[in-house]
Design goal:
The protein is built from seven helices and eleven strands. It is α/β, with parallel strands linked by helices and 222 residues long. The chain has a single domain, classed as Rossmann fold, CATH 3.40.50. The strands form two sheets. Strands 6-7-5-4-8-9-11-10 form an eight-stranded mixed β-sheet, sandwiched between helices. Helix 1 packs across helix 2 and helix 6 crosses helix 7. It is globular. The structure holds S-adenosylmethionine.
Length: 222
């Protein structure tokens, strides 16, 4: 599939899958979208606890992981971050992205995120532990009630409908802690209804620039 590096509305780059007309991030702003959908809501809804566990669906360019590692360090929050990726991005493409420059990554933690070993927990900074898991979501499994946050960042249902089914959401729901929070940029009505049908209490939140809404789900405390 043809892949292109493009510049988005806020000046940050992303990868475009030309045949699917789909991007790793919003064309209105890659960094802006990642901060709005995941980081702002993470900071808003996190509980006071020793350590926070996050599951990300789709490591991709590592942008969400990078922003989370920076926030963890800045706010001194201990984060254990598990990120699933079936088709890792080539290092040659990663080098073309401009997140390091924009986000002033003097310690080059962005490169460390990418060169860390798959399937092994790695401390990127004293507050952020990353485990990249190379597997498809369809076969991945984890302990129930494990994650405080789910960053659901799969390609959209238009191009990968099999990653937006109730069977997949049941799996994600079971690994979410009671009181845990599910976040996605997607606001499709069918996705909202399917997330509700597996048990999440769903709210529509204002979306990032270029998108009216996004979804947040909470797994009720029994
Ligand atoms: C929207 S991109 C993720 C963007 C990423 N969060 C970032 O910050 O750059 C979706 C990712 O899901 C991965 N993916 C696609 N199908 C998958 C599957 N079945 N299981 C696991 N990962 C998959 C893709 O390779 C891609 O990296």
């Amino acid at each position: 599939m043809e892949r292109k590096i493009i510049t988005t509305g806020d000046g940050s780059k992303t990868i475009q899958l030309v045949d699917w007309n789909e991007q790793y991030h919003s064309i209105h702003g890659a960094i802006q979208e990642a901060k709005h959908v995941f980081l702002t809501n993470f900071l808003k809804f996190k509980q006071q606890s020793e350590q926070c566990t996050i599951f990300e669906m789709g490591f991709g360019t590592g942008l969400n992981a990078f922003l989370t590692s920076q926030v963890a360090k800045e706010k001194e929050l201990k984060v254990k971050y598990h990120s699933l990726e079936a088709y890792p991005v080539q290092l040659s493409e990663i080098k073309e992205l401009n997140y390091r420059e924009i986000l002033q990554d003097s310690l080059d933690e962005f490169t460390q995120l990418h060169t860390s070993k798959w399937d092994e927990p790695t401390l990127i900074n004293p507050f952020f532990q990353l485990k990249k898991i190379q597997q498809t979501l369809e076969v991945w499994e984890n302990r129930e009630n494990y994650y405080d946050f789910i960053f659901y960042d799969a390609f959209g249902p238009r191009v990968q409908p099999h990653l937006w089914t109730t069977a997949i959401f049941e799996k994600i729901y079971s690994v979410t802690k009671c009181g845990g929070v599910f976040l996605t940029y997607c606001a499709k009505g069918q996705v909202r209804r399917d997330l509700e049908s597996v048990g999440y209490k769903i709210s529509r939140l204002p979306g990032p620039p270029g998108k009216r809404e996004m979804l947040m789900g909470v797994k009720p405390i029994k």
